[in-house]
Amino acid sequence: MKEFTGIEYLAIDLANHYGLDKELFEDRIQWVKDNWSNLEKFADKADAPFLYKKAVINIRRVAQGLPSGHMVALDATCSGIQIMSAITGCIKGATATGLIDPDVRADAYTTTQEVMNEILGYAGDDALMIARGEVKRAVMTSTYGSKKVPKDVFGEGELLDTFYQAAEEVAEGAFNLLDDLMETWKPFALVHEWVLPDGHEVKVKVMDTVEKRLEIDELGHYQMTAVYQVNQGKKKGVSNVANVIHSLDAYLLRCMIRRCNYDARLVQRVSDTITAELLRRGIEDTRLTEMNEKVAHHYKLYVQTNMLDTVMIYHINHESVQSLPSYYLRKLNNLLARLQEYKPFQIESIHDAFMCHADNCNRMRYWYKEIMAEFAESTILEFIFKTMLDESCMYPKYQDDLGDLIRQSNYAIC
Question: Which residues form the DNA-directed RNA polymerase C-terminal domain (predicted)?
């Protein structure tokens, strides 16, 4: 992973707010260098003028040797398709969302329009020139099962059919997963439930809109229609698609917080406890004790998802550590050692935009791509299907080594 200095991240942040977030990191930094003496003059042309002005003020302060608490925001590249591609092992979708090619700042929305032109045989003056924002709207919503928005953007007929063909070519795993998640809908169920690797239980009530005609005697028998939501089952629905992926998005955020802004004292204490236990097992003939309820719950989640989560450290002490197998303790201790390589730092998030102090951006980017790689190596998807459908299932990945490729990326968040 390419690393940058704090002031270089301030330059990247400034360029992002100007509208250069689709460029390579080096090109964004160079733009700031080339326009250093005139940065203030570009504010009116910036995509986000107020954020741009704030970024200019802060980079000027730092250049003068003054401290700054400015937080740099780095966005995921099409986070929905990114997550869906990772958990399905789809190299096409991973490529389109910046997860694997270290030298390309990917843009799935622009790529989709380019593929549409290839399918239609359009080029030059004949090429489609649909606004990127409109293509983005169609791709984002169609990924979650919407038919209306793509139709609003492309109309009906050949162009709409070409859009779907291109979208599936760009992110095959995501759009096949879309179809499979649609099948998890339970007709007339009042709630859909599943569990995430950190033990978070998702319970989404099925809500339906009801209209009821009312007559109010006190107002001279005035009649009106009340529209309200009730927890009522439906025969068909598409919301499981978005809800499952959004729940994984939220889980990713929780992982980021636990790994970036970890409790240093707790991590050290648990690491010491694990190290002492492994040493004891090396010199004594030991047997595993019975797991308590919390430890058993989180260990079972690890076995079922192959996703190691630091939430376990809140339940490890000198007694409970004796109940966990050595292979698991070694793996957890290795993760804690990686946490301790860098001091804990504050991280904030607005959906798929992650923010931290400029000096900590390298580490934030490291953990994001690492967690996405772990998603690719996990069996999260099979586990979610199992908890939703109450039956075991296999979900073969398109490619088993996607995690290794993700770890080499530079633009997973950028």
Answer: 5-149
Residue of 410, 376, 412, 398 lying closest to 92 (CA atoms):
398
Residues of the chain with pLDDT under 70: 123, 125-126
**Integer angstrom CA distances of residue 343 from 10, 72, 240, 360:** 20, 18, 38, 9
Token reading at 165: 């063909």
CA distances, 296 to each of 106, 198, 209, 323 (Å) = 41, 13, 41, 9
Q: What pLDDT is stored for residue 122 in this prediction?
A: 75
Q: Which domains, and CATH codes, for the chain? A: 6-68 (1.10.287.280)
**Neighbour-count burial of 227, counting CB atoms closer than 10 A to its CB (0-12 exposed, 13-18 middle, 19+ buried):** exposed
Q: What angle do CA 372, 382, 207 make, to 5 degrees?
A: 95
Q: Report how far residue 169's alpha carbon sits from residue 187's, in angstroms, rounded to the nearest whole number.
A: 31
Q: Vertex 107, ends 105 and 111: CA angle to 5°? A: 125
pLDDT single digits (tens) 161-182: 999 999 999 999 999 999 999 9
